[in-house]
Amino acid sequence: MNDKIWRTIDLINWGHQYFLSHQISNAKLEIEWLLCDILKCKRIDLYVDFEQPVMKNQLHIFKKYIKRRIKGEPFQYILGKADFYGNDFLVNDNVLIPRPETETIIDLLEKKNININKILEIGTGSGCISITIFLKKLANSIIATDISKDALGVAKKNAIFYGANTIDFKIHDFLSTDIHSTYDCIVSNPPYIKKDEINNLQSEVRKHEPQIALTDQKDGMSFYRRFADIGMSILNKNGFMLLEFGGASQVDEIVNIFQKHPYKLEFYNDLQGDPRIVEVKLTV
To answer: Could you tell me the pTM of the whole model?
Structure first.
């Protein structure tokens, strides 16, 4: 790369092949995203101005991005942002990268088409769920908690960017600290991966995303037991919980946990057709 004059199209073609040779599945798309960030343009602009020479300083940044990606760092952390429900959210290795599966929570809230007065999110991370709820005006009052001070720092920056100044962010250890208020709705994407399954994750997830947001360091069910135990005391009448979980393999475990209490469960699939969200309602 040293002496050659590189055009945009040259970098796309070279990067595509280079990423493929390193088993990066979305090779071309990721190269495009990296270049869009460097060149401050949209993907279509890469091809409109495909013969545009890339400046040396831009080429230098491109090289650094490529090296980081080849070492396994997720491209979202390289760019410092990730998409959730059509908006970009600041992310770093203190928070999980938002997944499309989690957007199902927003879909379900929208389909209900009800006026939710007070909503609580447990484990807000980047704040993408609560901020999206704010942007879509799905609740009048939003409280978002996390055990990680660093994660809350990221969430607050995202909230400032989107003008979500009414969200109340609080540091809170859900598993060991009581909740003294009641809510119409509780949402959460809690740590649900079993401790002994962490090593089975993709290396870029295992090595870069915060383990505290991935696993409870036990059987992956600690948060659901806690939700089951305290849900009756923190949900208002007709209140409900929308909780993400790890798919079909955890359905029976979740049923067993909640059936010990007066709850009604309903499971919803994500866009891939996998069970992903459980709605928990009081039956008394």
So the answer is: 0.95
